[in-house]
User: Fold these one by one.
Assistant:
Number 1:
Amino acid sequence: MLFLELRWQLFRNSLLRRNRRSELGLQWLGYVFTGFFVVATSIGFFAATYNLVREETFILALLLWAVFITWQFMPVLFSGYSPGLDFKEVARYPLSFRLYFSLNAAYGLFDPSAITGIVWLASIWLGILLQRPEWAFSAALVFLFFIAFNVIGNRILVGLFDRFQSTRQGRERVAVFLLLMALLPQMLQFVANGWIDTRSLQSHKWQGVREVMVTVLKVSPPNLLSQAITKDWAGKIVPIAILMGYFLVALLILTRNLRRVYQGEVYAESFTVQRELKIKPGWKFPFLDESVSAIVEKEVRYMRQNSRLLVQLVYPVIVFGFVAVGSAKRVPIFSNSGNVLASFAGLMALSASNLSYNTFGMDRDGFARWLLSPMSLRQVMLAKSLAQGLIMSGLYLVGAVAITTLKHIPLTAVIGTTAGFLCVLIVQIGAGNVISVYWPKKVEPAQMSSRMTSQAAGLASLIVNLPLMALIGLVVLATWMWHLTWLPLVAGLVGFAASIKLFSVLLNWAERYALEHLEDIAGKLTS
Amino acid sequence: MAEIILETTSLRRTFGPLVAVDDLNLTVEKQQFYGFLGPNGAGKSTTIKMLTGLLRPTSGSIRILGVDLEKNSVAVKSRIGVVPEGLALFERLTGAQLLNFVGRMYGLDRDTAATRTAELLEFMDLKDSADKMVADYSHGMKKKTALAAAVIHGPAVLFLDEPFEGVDAIAATTLKRLLQRFISHGGTVFLTSHVLEVVERLCTHIGIIRQGRLVASGSLEELRTGVKVAGHDGSPLTLEEIFLQIVGGQKQDAEVISWL
């Protein structure tokens, strides 16, 4: 009971944290949505079982796979989003190991994904009861076993995850891995839509891989569980024996891991052997003075040393490459080569918000360093903007050169599109400075839950991007309706000049606001 | 008469109804090692934040090296070094990159910044960790890095907020060596600390703040002369005795938790 109360208290406190109140509405909306999701999917699980289990017994394995994956991986994938209890700390209290083990397992049983899994299992069981009552008894026993197995398996995974999380590098690697996992469904969606060509995977050279996968699937827990329910008594022996084997191994692993934590194992930061000290002079950029060069260098290093940000920056480029180059014929907009470059330019300009909409977010405590330095905040933000512009322009340049070479795009279109890209990029970065001081947000690179920008900044991006889109849309429409081939070029160049002026206005605005709200900004970046 | 390095006049800072610092008049002269003491919540950090430009005073003025901080903050900031409360380090740079960066931000050319970075890392015993990210440093290493970052541009005045908090004896010795060297070369130090023994050993002058007001200021000898402790044996008062007498925070035995 104490632990249930603690879990509830942690959840409540997470809602009351500073900076969270403004996001409460969205958060509650999320909970309501999750509730609907669980209810709707449970109905789906029941319906699928009720309608199909009589003819197609494989449906059981499929549904149990869904339960298994959700139960095992969702808590890890969303570990940063929900308040957690550190069992390394719990081990400090005067508890016996048996109680410590039980508490750890019980804690896993009250995880939202565990509760979802149990509700789904109940729905499946109801379907079985109504359609195949002769299986109901064995299904009930098997499902109870499956619950215990999932709890133990999940606690092993969470423990492993904690171990990785014990060093900064480990935390960041895990965050990047989870980010890639979270991006995977998008990639699969592209495959499903036929935007990415997967026909090559069906060739003979992948035959071996397919065979291995089929074997693995046969001895997977969900498949064995399905057999333990649907086979006759003699046929149940082998799957149950294998499942018991899995369970015992999992139990042993969890016991061993928990005992090590219980006995005070500390996941320490590791130290590496250092090389001889050689300090290289910093980077020097043409036309920039020493201080501004130093800030640009710092910003580029910060981005380069942040694998999560790199993934976010490079991922759209990779996906675009797959979609535009690999399957151009299936996506109508890409039938015109000029559109490919324009789409890429648009994508890159919009991606700039990842960098610019929370320009001090990664600095965190370092924000005070800017205030202590003999530079105005305007100079600091200008230097940061330069760094962001350089990075995004560099990415654009690489992509644009590749697209222009492959698609033979006319020079006027390239110049017009590039001018348009720069125009939108400059406005994005300029607006980013204002948004960064209005809604600063501390970024935790090692936490999946820590977004690069605040939710408010996400909404503000609409205010920035909608007028831009409307303007670009008008130019495209006018070009198309009246065949004004020169218009994109002229509009791009005029827009470029206007965006420079707008950037300067926005920069002054951001500095004025920041100077009046220094403590508020510093507080949000450090708390 | 010695040159006045720091001077505040009627300095006041409020946070809503809370008066954190009230009518603060401070004077620190060249080459003084000024220790600014006070109990928790007395206004020490608020004061040092105002002196270094991290916080705007509600009213009053601050002059550092003869320059008004409000009117010409950039000129003042280029001549002071600060170790602030949260250290203000860019933790995703390596120690070497950070010092190099800070040096150049203060206008040092690339070669000078690199040379001074190497010297400071050597002096602070951080050489072996120069290529490690500051995020992976221990607390003591971060403190030493922050102090190195505060001195790399050769400031005239150092402002240090709790420089000895959470550092081990070895790191503390390194910090003390650096500060004494800084004073002997004509620098001035203004520090806040809870470690009274360190302040007593290092500081030439002491100011004590309570509930936002300066309640005592002067050299240790001047403070000893001004404070009388009932029942004292006549030996020179320690700074702790002076502090407790002035601040009045000592609990009697009867007030201590009965069951402990």
Note: The mean pLDDT of chain B is 89.
Number 2:
Amino acid sequence: MPTNPLQTIMNPESIVYLGASNSLQTIGTAQLINITKGGYKGKIYPIHRKEKSVLGLKAYPDITSINKPADLAIIVIPPKAIPGVLEECGKAGIRYAIIITAGYGEIGQKGKLLQQELIAVAQKYDIRFLGPNCIGIVNGPTRLNTTWFPSKYRAGHVGIISQSGSYITQTLTYFEKLGLGISQAISVGNQADIDMVECLAYLGKDNQTRSIALYIEGIKNPMDFLKTARKITPQKPIVAVYVGGTEAGARACASHTGSMAGSNELYSGLLRQAGIIRARNITDLFDWSLALAQQPLPKGKNMAVLTNSGGPGSSMADEANRHGLKIPLFTPDAQGKIKAMTPFTAAYVNPVDVTMNYDLDLIYKKLPELILNLKKIDGMLFYGIFGTIHFQDKIALARNLSDIPLDLMEQMTEEACKEFIKLPDKFKKPILCVCFSGREDNAVARIQDGGIPVYPTPERAVRAMAALWEYKKIKRRNNF
Amino acid sequence: MKIIDEAIKMGRTALSEYESKQLLSTYKIPVTKEALVGNRESLIDAIGKIGYPVVLKGCSPDIAHKTEKGLIRVDIRTEDEALTAFQEIHAGMNGTENSVLVQELIRGKRELVAGLTRDPQFGPCVMFGLGGIFTEILKDISFRVAPLEKYDALEMMQEIRGRKILDAVRGMETVDLDMLADIMLTIGKIGMENEKIKEIDINPLIISNGKPVAVDALVVLLDQK
């Protein structure tokens, strides 16, 4: 079996870069800066006809004059020059390329012919390439980011394959806020050569990748897709968004990536058949991929809700029932124990609402442990993260009332979070949290970094939990 | 398949209801007991074998939607009724030979749809959903790409919004899901084995005493032009 081309494209030891200069006005330069400053450890050979150096790196007038082998060419130059450059790559023994440039199959007949020309040259020299009309790749662990957006992103366990470049580059700041870490992200563009199926096969085997997020405008080879995905989904979850199922969606996809869209129902069927969880939108796609990458799967659909505020607790309970999850009453015995531990204002049957309360040990440890220990409960939805930042605000506003020992509180919060993040592993049950504050709240950041997703609204946490349950059912379906 | 090849040779783009069901029947999909008749004698003879009550329909590959043309009479219980209905339908068919289909009346309140569509990209895809008039109104359907596994078929049934129709509701029996799943697997197989079939539409697939029966069926062929 031939080696998957992504193996080298995602992990090149050396890169020939075409399309960067010393001017930030070209896209190519901006993308090369990401590679040089992002932490990539390999060699980079920029090609420039006039400049002696590009971004402080020795530049070469053409590929032949590098005179050293290179793994990958990244190409961000005008279309008419690309076939010639690919020829040069071929002759120099470069077997892999990422073609970022647009203006091919997606613009109509003229572009389709240009794309055919690329394919012909590539085949002549056995070159495998990603694109054209893509933004490239992000490799989380090796810090190789060929995209445009800044390199501030975290390495993690979500793999992404996208027919839109934006969803792997402009989303990097969004992922950061969500605490989502990338294993490998691939923008496939027009899929003139390497297609989504090869990317899937690669991520299916990639050890860093624990869940795969797919953004689909059109699948070129549905049968290959089905076959490959079906092999992956019993071991590794795949979540997908498909946007070509409406009249307007199909039109947008055709002009964006030249994709032929298909009926919404057919795609729904194909995705289910492949064991892929279909997300309705981009929000769910990344929320669910994150939960699937980081949390154990529930064994059943019975969830506990633990909250320190009634509203978010009720929202979670309500949304849970809408998405096929149950919020069962605790046994009288468990209810008694919870009642004895909590204030008289508390609710204790499920949801458990401890009401506004600063007893960190109770909320982060004693109650979660009691709840997760219950046989009947398969997972926990949690609202009640409250970092010390909020006290800092108060102190700043009323300096004469600074009788709160902030240092001690920070220490206590850290202790509480440290215990809390161990719980999913200890009980082999998932926890998903909600907090309206983001990572500016130190407790939110701590819990996210500890591996438990914290979502900005109750409904998003619940839907992610439902996705975990959905995947559990997919894993079990061979015993239908 | 012979039925398909002959239809194509004649330049047709569809099989008649009778031919469609013969094809399904070859693949062991349960269909109504029926016969194609052209005169009063063969009608009475056929009813003798099928037994009252019967349904009479105009049958031709050109008439896809019989109810809209009024060429259908249901719940016929006597010879008089049968002869009157035959005359009316026969006249409506402009005297075409062997153009009246007489079939057993299948009783069942639950109407489903099962079928096949050949997508240019996906190839043959199997469809399942609520049948009768609800197919068009509710579009409560699900698809799978052929070939199907048994669990695909079972999941399709769980996917439609009206899935409770398959349960033991309002004193009716639970639907034989195994049998239903086998029908869907078979439809996929027909699509895989007969590349000239463009669509299959079994509607209604009526649940009678818990078992599905194809009561009406249409096979559309790929236009050879």
Note: Residues 458-476 of chain A form the longest helix (19 residues).
Number 3:
Amino acid sequence: MLDKSYYDKADEIIAQHGADQASLIPIIQDIQAEYRYLPLELLSYVAGKIGITEAKAYSVATFYENFSFEPKGKYVIKVCDGTACHVRGSTPILERLYSELGLSPEKKTTDDMLFTLETVSCLGACGLAPVMTVNDKVYPAMTPDAAAELIQDLRG
Amino acid sequence: MGYMTINNRRVEFTDEKNVLSVIRKAGIELPTFCYHSELSTYGACRMCVVEDERGKVFASCSEVPRDGMTIFTNTPRLQHHRKMIIELMLASHDRDCTSCAKNGVCTLQALANQLNVSNVRFENYKKERPKDTSSDCIIRDPNKCILCGDCVRMCEEIQGLGILDFVSRGSKMHVTTAFDRPLSATECVGCGQCRIVCPTGAILIKRDMDPVWKDLADKNKIVVAQIAPAVRVAIGERFGLPEGENVIGLLVAALRRLGFDRVYDTNFGADLTVMEESKEFQERLASGGKLPLFTSCCPAWVKYCEQKYPEFKDNLSTCKSPQEMFGALLKEEARANADKESRKTVVVSIMPCSAKKAEIKRPEHFTAGEQDVDYVLSTVEVSRMIREAGLDLSNLKPEAMDMPFGLASGGGAIFGVTGGVTEAVLRRLVGSHGQETLEFISSTGIRGEDGIKEATVNLDEREVKIAVVNGLASAGKLLERIKAGEAYYDFVEVMACKSGCIGGGGQPAWRSSKAKKSRADGIYEVDRTSQIKISNENPIIENVYNGILKGKIHELLHTR
């Protein structure tokens, strides 16, 4: 069971969009924006409030890669692994970040909840390849060393 | 209304919803996985593809018939497509057919055979997922799922529950519950309608055959069978007998050969239910008790009401269901005779239902620390046991049930079909007993296939309003209307499965609505040909009320 404040926040978001079926996606997007993930408890709560089954809500939320049921770190790092970034060396960057952060394709978030590392298929910035983003700020023409340095900076 | 040309033959169509129905009407059995006439059209399996005269290929289930259409159903191109689809399905399917419970009755297997698929060239890249055996009624094996979505639409559209849905996308897509919870942790009521439409072994009814075999072989046990009304008009289908034929005599003969010591009729239990439920209804009417009175025979409905509409819990009749009343009575008799009979009595219910498997485990269905009914076997399980013993129902000679509890009224028999409980209770409550009264009751509007049927009947100068609900989605609608004050009833019958128990989750899957209609006709024939029509006229009922039930009516026959 989540803290009551989560449900109050969800109520607020539902009120903004209107408690009807068609609002499911905007509501859960806002919840995810608020908490950097979509708590399952809230997904189930929203389903009840807007009158759809939990199974339907779960079905919609799992359809989109962007919804995450796991809490994410303070810094969400997205390494682009689209075609352009891939050929210009995104894999060494990714591997360096995995070792730097102690993460893997299965373990995406550090235990201190500081970093989440994900790959994305294309960020639409192929001219800047290889590219990565930290909380949506774009870092162009990366190298493994630059990525490691960036992590050090973020750790402060 | 118009004409179309199918394979160079002119075919008339009238109000068919789609081209597929016209093709089938013309006698061509196009294969399908995801098309069921009572569910919404999904158009996913693409087995029903046809080609028009310009070579356009489309799914016939999703196309409205138009006058002058020209289509072909069996061109080399279509044959190639269909085979390829099956091959791809088989590639990601757990193909361990020999040990699959659906072996021999699987649509995927049948179509692979029908379309002469002889080779699967692709590797299975699907991640193996665990079976869900948590429910008392239903087993899910995701590795057998072909993603036709029939269960998803059945649960949502017909049963109004929506327990299952598609999860994830693309090659990771699978059908599961919300948050991948085990089925036992969901609001699944165990009706088993998902299993009826599932074309493969992905959804099965839980089996209890092994412990029953063991007890049948145990010399220290008396194994008593009770057979529900709807079983006798469906089990014959599994042995090539006509749809809807009442094969009770053959079934009794088979059960004796399997080793059952006594074979009784759940219709007798239904007679007991009529007695108690009519009494309860009269009392509630007279004392201003909680109305409407909801029937409680259907365990899937009882669970649904408790979960979704707990505010109506007290409206549920306190009567146990027929199998439970009968089980409690049989066990009480065994306890009373314990000094003369050292063998332990085991009660096995043979039911058209999967939810009954969970019902027997509810705490109110234990008396003196003992479970009133020990096992529930579905119609399908019993047909398998008969076959396992090397018997064929159609080769046996009919035998009569054991006395005294093999005698039941026609009122008990019609419990197996929607509206039957209401009809039987009305027969008991309406004073006069002539043919005219019986016909009047049957024509009040409580028979038939509608989701919600309404009737008004005069009982002791009082106008009594009745609703009969056929299918759980309709139950939800009716309860919402009652809650909102838009409708008022005194008596509400609910059967979770469409058509009633004849369409239960433990029955052989029917291929058409005609098959279900034949079962209903079979049940009504049992009623028409019984000498006793009304439960209280069953002489055995009087005997048990004056005998074994004396002073114990409430304890044995009611839940609270």
Note: The mean pLDDT of chain B is 95.
Number 4:
Amino acid sequence: MVKGSGSSPQRQTSLGIDRMTLRIAVLGVLVIAAFVTLFSRLWFLQILATDQYRALAKENRVRTVYSEPPRGRILDRNGTPLVVNKESIAVTIDRDTLQRPALRYHVFKRLSHLLGIKLKDLRYNAKSTGTSPYKPVPVAYDVHERDASTILENREDYPGVGVEPLPVRDYPAGALAAQDLGYVGEISLLDLKSSQFKGAHPAYAAGDIVGKLGVERTYDRYLRGRPGIERVVVNALGEPTQTRRVQSERSGPDLVLSLDAKTQRETQRALKSGIQAARNAGFSAPAGSAVVMDPRNGQILAMASLPTYDPKIAADGLSKKEFDRLGQATPNNPDDDAILNRPIQAAANPGSTFKVVTAGAAMATGVATPYSTLDCPGTITIPPKGGPGSVLYHDWTLADLGVMGFPESLEVSCDTFYYQLGYDMQTRFGVKGTEYWSGDKTDVPSGRELFQRYARTAGLGNPTGVDLPYENGGVVPDQQWCHEQYLATKNTPAPTCQYGWLPGYTVNMSIGQGDMRTTPLQMAVTYAAIANGGTVWAPKIGMSLERQQQDGTVKTLREFKPKAVAHLPLNSTELGVITQGLGEVISNPNGTAYSAFQGFPLSKYPIVGKTGTAQIGTSVFNDSWFISYGPTPDPRYVIAVYVQKAGHGGESAAPIARQIWESILGIDKNPTVTLGQDQSG
Amino acid sequence: MRAEGIFGEAVDRIGGEPISARMARKAPVRHLDLTLLVVTLLLSAFGALMIYSATVHQQTAAGIDPYLRKQLVYMVVGFVVLLLVAVFDYRYLRTFAAFIYGGIILGLLIVLSPIGSTQLGATRWIDLGSFQVQPSELAKIGIIITLAAYLAERKGEVRARDVAVCCAMVAVPAALIFLEPDLGTALVFVAILATLFLVAGAKIRHFIALAVVGLVVIVGSLHFGLVKQYQIDRFTAFLNPRPDVRSIGYNLTQAKIAIASGGIHGKGLEGKNTQTSLNFVPEQHTDFIFTAVGEQLGFLGSATLLGLFALLIWRALRIATMSRDPFGTLLACGIVALWAFQIFVNVGMTMGIMPITGIPLPFISFGGSSLITNFASIGFLLNVHMRRFL
């Protein structure tokens, strides 16, 4: 670089050094830039972003661990255990292993060989995962202890495989009230958002085992007990280094149901036997319900639903496969659905059992008095004066049965008698056509539709409020319902309620046909109100919570009392004529249930009831109903029986009810049902 | 004292100053850079403390933390090396440059031979019984000496041929290190080379040419698969870190959490330093040691450490300008390049602004070869500084 020829050596050197100093300065600037960069980044992380990263550091190390306490037992009203806990050994595979196909295959193959489970089933179980992304997935339940220890002793042969004691439910009383008890399973995302589980303290979390159906679900907050909560500080390997107990674990209290195990068993047996008899007689009779309720307090003593299942298969929850086997595989055909709790979930036309409601409404609205009489012809034209739009309505028989009062109308189940009452109420309080439709709203004044209002007061058209999930409220059709149906179907070729409310709807409704739909439990509530002097109950199946104390005594922690939700607007005379009519249904040779109760000691145990035979448009078979209560004058039981596609009420349902009555009253040891005879509508 | 012999008769004064006084004034030991020495000791003590804090909780047996014990031994050995390097005149080194270079190549070849010892998937060490030597660390200072000796001869006139020779000289050890594999250390060599070119007086066109060649090499090695996909992933992970445990982004995420959660004052060495004491940061006593500083000592401690580093580099640059010959200047600048690059890449890596490479933090990271190399570098700097008047 140095070119000055005449310059001295010192100068040369100093110039060279100067050039070099300049270059070193460039290096210095680069170094300064690097340090400024590091300082700025350090400033950002440690001064500006500290809070955010402190939270991350905490997330890193603190794990909240919940321990699930033993779930509360479920007992019947006498303390007989229906649901208890049992320990079962489950084999699990961690998610990491499941996500690696080659390893997964290897592990499945070994497990399949060891446990004697088909590869296909292991794969299936591994797929039906729950919601918790951390828990290992159980692939086999009820594993033999010997196999479990084989796995534990040969860890390296079973990578990612674990053995977990899994508390499962056990059913010492056998296949009793499966649908009422329900079952438990891992909480679903939908459950987490549902009002049943939201807002609980402590909050439910993914992976929790909760009641999915039945009282297991309704009373889950109590049954689950109080989980233990621990805050664990873990290191990078997830090994705990410090543990702080936040809450100690406490087992769930026992839930006592109002169910009586013996009555439940006999009710189920009678229902099953009756359905079998109906099938033997040529009916299809795919399903049925029976409810036994105490009309004095609204407690449910027995509630049976057929087809049913052995709750044992749901001890560890229901897999998709088990679900399908229980009838969910054919959603278009609910007849084989064993999970459906028919007494509260299957709403159908009540047929003639509804006539007590029509009678009550007629008296309550002043259309009739207890002593009113009407003609019971074989056919009737409505409106009576005829003219355009008039319709000819048939009784179930063509014979003219002459003039009669309320008791006889119930006894022989005269349809034309109730058509007239229905039509009278329609003319005086009913609405017509698209009256009161305003835009998308319906605005019927309070003085109208009193028939429907009475039906609702009697417990129909809305869920009864029973302490079981997913209750069906049935339908009491009225102008608002009609409008809603129209709005929902107006773009179809034949909209429902196209012309608004037609008087014929009321006429059909008066004998429990048309769009009137009720559940067996609703009918039990309605009849209980007549039996007990007018109190409409929100029935209950859960009775109390109790806990066994250390000294062996049992302490009741809480009682669940059924609530009276309404009172029928009828006096004792009015209720009396209805009860009288219902008595004649059974005791009078013309009564529709006379044949079913032949030989029953009615003088000792005066039972009253009503048959119902609902015609279903698409089926050659009728639905068979029988609702009864007794012994009068102070009835202790209401029994509602409903058998689908099993003929007339007096043919199938009434004999089943008789069998239940005999069991409850202890007057017959022969538990088979013989069909009765009944031609009524 | 009287000077006789070649100086002839009675020359006992130069410029009016007695020779004995002049010699005493110019005696190397009187020009020791005490600041540099103090900074060195502070840094290595700082490092020992951090290594202790990052490893003490892993230890189960009683007694002194084995990592700390080893590091203290390395410090003593390092200090002896420093003294040895500082006592003789550094200018003699030029004579031995060829031997030093040969030694480097030999060491690196031994590593790649079956004798080399493998840890964490990389073969970087020679096992010598009770301790291991990492030749690539020693090679750093070796290549600085070799390049400085060669370029000092050019006296500011760097020709294209010299650039090519230097590149070739660096390429051989860098390639051997790259094969270990240790991409980070190989890059340190590139940084040293570029710095020495700059200071020795290479032309702009040389840099442009080198940039073009470098680009061709990078594209070529990517194209022909010389660089493995995992290396590319690791190298680019900092741009978009994934926090799951199996990915390299986990290290980075945990490192950032450790540093940033330290805040201004840090969490201290006891109890609350959860990222450190619960082992959330992998390799914390070696490559990720800065996270222990960040979490436990906070911004104040981290800034102090960076300040000490700045002081160190300032002293080294100062020595570069004060050296009486180009060799000393180039030697000091090479050392500046070595440290500045390692500090920037290492600290930048833990804070998520630089790629993740296996480069230790000078004086702080655990490791004997690295520490001894750095002490030797200090020795050379002191050497140049002491003899600036001779």
Note: Chain B touches chain A through 49 residues (CB under 8 Å).
